[in-house]
Amino acid sequence: MKTIIEFIENPETGQQEVYELINKVRQEASQSVDQMQMFKFIMNGLEFLEKHGIPIAAQKYFVDMREDGRPYTIQLVKELRNHVPLLEFRVNWKGLGAFRAIFFEYYYSNTQILIFTKSIIKKSTYSQEFEEIVQQSELLYSNFLENPHKYIHLEEVGTNESS
Q1: 10 confidence band (pLDDT: 50, 70, 90)
Q2: Contact call for residues 114 and 5 (beta carbons, < 8 A)
Q3: What span, in angstroms and rounded, lies between the C-alpha atoms of 35 and 29?
Q4: Could you report the per-residue pLDDT of 98-135, keeping only the tens digit for each?
Q5: Which positions ≥6 away from 57 have C-beta within 8 Å?
Q6: pTM of this prediction?
Q7: Which of 4, 6, 57, 97 gives a 20 to 30 Å CA spacing to 51?
Q8: Neighbours of 52 (CB within 10 A)
Q9: CA 1 to centroid of chain Cα atoms
Q10: Cβ atoms 113, 2 nearer than 8 A
Q11: Are the C-beta atoms of residues 89 and 116 closer than 8 Å to each other?
């Protein structure tokens, strides 16, 4: 089965919030080695996720190489307890915090679509802002199920076989 990643638009603002945060990290990467490292792990992690899909990407550890040549290992995807079926895409980097993106799975035309809703860079283990984006993502999930065509172009999924 093919897996693709979609960054959902916030229906109130029209912005793809996850994509925009990743782009912000990319822009800051030119000024900071740590930002560059985090951006690299986010992008390579998304490739890993799209290559393996769920559940495999949630079961395997993601391993990449740091700029200093040492390995970086993390459980890239975790289920959000008490918020099923939401999942959490995770990348941590020293001094910068923890990049978190909330997403869920949707199946269409023999394709697993991973719908990314909200993201944040957490500075501590508990974050009220993170809890808020989880709640917002639960609402987006419910709204998405009522009308997926409002959020993504499903007609392109079945016909576009490149990835």
Answers
A1: confident
A2: yes
A3: 5
A4: 999 999 999 999 999 999 999 999 998 889 999 999 99
A5: 48, 49, 76, 77
A6: 0.91
A7: 97
A8: 17
A9: 19
A10: no
A11: yes
Residue 19 host element (H or E): helix 17-29
Residue 83 neighbours by CB under 8 Å, 6+ apart = 134, 137, 138
Q: What are the contacts of 128-135 at 24+ separation with CB within 8 A? A: 130/100, 133/102, 134/80, 134/83, 134/86, 134/102
DSSP alpha helix (H) spans, 30-153: 33-52, 56-59, 128-146
d(CA 100, CA 119): 5
Residue with tokens 């959020």: 151
Which residues, listed in sequence order, are joined to residue 108 by a DSSP beta bridge? 111
Letter for the amino acid at 4?
Answer: I
